[in-house]
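Dear colleagues,

As part of the handover before I leave the project, I'm documenting each prediction I ran so the next person doesn't have to rerun anything. This entry is a single chain, and its sequence is reproduced below.
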Amino acid sequence: MLNVEADKVTPTESGVAEVWTAVLNHDQFGPEDNFFAVGGHSLYATLVIYQLRDIWSIEFPLSFIFEYSTVRELASAIDRAKAEAAESDAVTG
């Protein structure tokens, strides 16, 4: 669960925060909270990536969580990956 006003949260940010909540067993995160600063480590990062893959049906590399370690950064990277996947499907579809 994100600790901000609901109208300022994107659906992707909300989804990322829900995954972090489940994996890290933590109540709330801010959009700028760093995954590793709030208790994340490489094993948890792997679990997060697997859950994100399940939710969005896109292959995310494990490096995503290291490159984009805040809720907001990770959500933005996921949104870009979704757009690229949609573009690729439109071209090859």
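The first helix runs from residue 11 to 24. The CA atoms of residues 78 and 84 lie 10 Å apart.

All the best with the project,
I.
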